[in-house]
Request: fold
Amino acid sequence: YIYQSAFALGLFGAVLLFIGMRNNNEVSATWYGFWAGTFLWTGWVEFAFVWSAKFLGVPDLMDSAVAGQIATKAEYLVMMSSIGVLGATLVYFLLNKETKCNFFLWFQRNAGLKTGKPTPGHQRNFAAIMALETVYVTWFFYLVLLFIYDENILGDHHPVTYGVFFLSVIWAAYLFQRLMKFWKVTTAIRYGIPTAIIAWNAVEIGGRWHLFTEFWERPQEFALEMSLFALGLIIAAVLAARTPAHKKSELSRQQFEAAEKLPAKS
Reply:
């Protein structure tokens, strides 16, 4: 029942997206969108590639350094064929005049890609934005890693791969320190998704180099580690849920007012 379960998982994500898109609370809608995107990607997108690889008889790519170990699973080899779809659809998002994405806005400003002014009073649907961001950022960086891993293009130990590894570490650290300055919860969540995925690139490449054991791929063998990881997630979720609404905004305002009262330096 693997594919039936995957379909149900994706359907659950679609239901969450429907609920989130009808929710007018920005915080709730953002969380609905994140989980909707996560379940849609895992259930419908990833397992569609799993099914396609099996149906087409695509073999796994074996690790040349470790006998009997899979380097890249067949479904990810099939996923590489989706780069054209990713590129074609990203053109729309890159040129979209309603976008609030700093990455796209930077390109629009510096590459002369503006297509007009944003529509006044345009209402953004945060659940839809969050779901799409989750899917696209995950998809984009999957393909980045898959193509640099390919020995016909670069390879695991190519200088560019090392560059991507260290760039991911530096970029993630930079984004994280910026993330710590956000006071608005929903903005922090939307900014945190690409930050986490960029940081995860370094983890993925490190695992590819066999620098550590990727215990999350074999949870049945690492029950203690997975239990501690799950406990950490639960604690983080509880702390997030117990954070008073707009408390950080209130603290930020108080700090700003206090700073204004300080005498100006001569």
